[in-house]
């Protein structure tokens, strides 16, 4: 018996080594990666998919099977039925921590809603499934459909939102990677910033560091409106963008008109951006000036009206007119200093 045990021991050890190597090979990597990240709460005993991560190829990082590299990752988020797509995010590659359900990477990421109304991209990202937050860290770009900025982009007779046929078709079709990487080819408002934090539960967005907003008019002969600020927030609902708020050193430039202030709120109900606050110590009120004439108007608030593509002052105002802009015989102040308008 002893010699039988002596012969069997190496064989058992060899089997264990072979088994361990097989297990290691199994977890080293493979193709067609698929990992459900989140499920909707069970309804009538049925659990439905909420967030799914897929990829072309995966490989473990070091000896941990919970951290993997993934090529051509795609994150898809679904409505309560588990099949209707809400949004998709793709990237060339990423790192996945299956234990914490975090997806991150230093490369480009492209985010697009299924209704074709909201598009984001940036370089460097982090997706946290635990709180449904998407962070884009560099060279971010946002595209928002013009109709998404209106309180009534289209309504049916029963008062419910009526989407164009193209939107309905896109919402039911899974887009290719090439289609997701490009913003929709239709008029939209764009936002550039250094960083974006997108809370996909509350549908609120934080734009930080040198925010630039470009709003192009529908008319070809009208100037575009460019808005800059230090940081901004946005709130989106199922019906569209509810509001956008700009903070600190807010500028609005539209052709010959230039407005300056410290705080601006855009609301979709009236499609107006209201600028208030002091831009600098020299200007205690928000002000609007014309670059061609040098005429400056300080007012309680400055209004950018998107419907009419105009900028105007409201409330009691003080207008400063340079002497060179005054005509001889004018009834205004001949010194060209300032005149108060009700």
Mind explaining what this structure looks like?
It is a single chain. The protein has helices spanning 2-28, 165-172, 177-180; strands at residues 29-39, 49-61, 64-71, 74-78, 85-90, 93-97, 102-113, 118-128, 133-136, 140-145, 188-193, 195-199, 204-215, 225-237, 240-254, 257-267, 272-276, 287-290, 296-305, 310-320, 338-341. Residues 3-26, 153-170 and 328-342 have low confidence and may be disordered. The chain is 11% helix and 52% strand. With 342 residues, it is mainly beta. The chain has a 21-stranded antiparallel sheet that branches. The protein has one domain (89-341): Lipopolysaccharide (LPS) transport protein A like domain (lipopolysaccharide transport protein A fold). The protein is elongated.
How would you summarize this macromolecular structure in one to three sentences?
With 342 residues, the protein is mainly beta. The chain has one domain (89-341): lipopolysaccharide transport protein A fold.
Layout: helices, strands, pairs:
Blueprint: H1 2-28, E1 29-39, E2 49-61, E3 64-71, E4 74-78, E5 85-90, E6 93-97, E7 102-113, E8 118-128, E9 133-136, E10 140-145, H2 165-172, H3 177-180, E11 188-193, E12 195-199, E13 204-215, E14 225-237, E15 240-254, E16 257-267, E17 272-276, E18 287-290, E19 296-305, E20 310-320, E21 338-341
Antiparallel strand pairs: 1-2, 2-3, 2-4, 3-6, 4-5, 5-7, 6-7, 7-8, 8-9, 8-10, 9-12, 10-11, 11-13, 12-13, 13-14, 14-15, 15-16, 16-17, 16-18, 17-19, 18-19, 19-20, 20-21
